[in-house]
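thread from #wetlab-drylab

HS: before we spend reagent money on co-crystallization trials with zinc ion, can we at least see a predicted complex? here's what I'd submit
DV: go for it
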Amino acid sequence: MSDLHEFIRHLPKAELHLHIEGSLEPEMMFDLAQRNGITLPYASVDAVRAAYNFCDLQSFLDLYYAGAAVLRTARDFHDLTAAYVQRARADNVRHAELFFDPQTHTERGVPLPDVFAGIAGALREAKAEDGFSSRLILCFLRHLPEADAFATLEAALPLRDEYADLWIGVGLDSGEVGNPPEKFAGVFARARELGLRLVAHAGEEGPPAYVRGALDTLRAERIDHGVRAEEDASLMRRLKESQTPLTVCPLSNLKLKVVDDMREHNLARLLRAGLCVTVNSDDPAYFGGYMNANFIAVAEALSLSREELVTLARNSFLAAFVSDAERQPWLDEVDAMLRR
Ligand code: HPA
Ligand code: ZN
């Protein structure tokens, strides 16, 4: 293993942009289909992988929602989450904030309490095993009406006390273009009143105006992706000044053709412009790699220095929704990497 790979492997990290449904590996998709008596439209694991050729976000979402149909029971959500935690640990991820998409499951008749119980069960076990830290962010599907997002939030509220250790915020995902942040102004205002943390996908395929909308209308505290902010110089200045974190997902951007070549990815430019950039895996089972694969891809393609890799890891802990008491030991460990 090269020195660079070794350095990345040892770097402590927080993952802040991970859709748990997007960690469903084809092998598990087949196992769960069999367990639940579901017939998949694929003959083999290889046939599933061969279908992962996306031309844009929507072509991915079509497969992602179809794949999620094998998730039926609390046990399925538990096993999915436990498998992700194993992968994250192997990459020295210490803290993860997981997105989940309740509407994808409730519309198929899966009870919301089963979704919560399965995911939270695995995360609590992980915490007990070795201190693996995590939180949950409930995402609204932006291709659906705001009224559906409201109904989802109201359905989740009776579970809030039971999952107070984990469920800390709401997010906004799914097809971006044509579904601007303003469509969800009401439900984000309600979530804010309730004291939930707020994040939103913006500026992945959508224009810089969507990043502004997420900041001004939704009051998002972090922007998921945000790479298209670079097209707007005054927005770049604002993001630098506010240090609003961007949860960038390099392999996702490559697979969904947000960039044509990793050497053209703007992560290094955003970082060198002084924005609070983080590296994340988004939907690792679909995009070809977990956390360290994303770090390695940008480190190599963009010739990132060790100081820059440390800054990315540092930013991930600074951007995490945790207390300063939880954050500080991780920051100390990250800083110690430069003295190795
Ligand atoms: N963008 C929007 N919606 C998503 C994504 C993404 O990258 N991954 C899963 N749902
Ligand atoms: Zn995402």
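DV: The radius of gyration is 19 Å.
HS: ok that's useful, forwarding to the group
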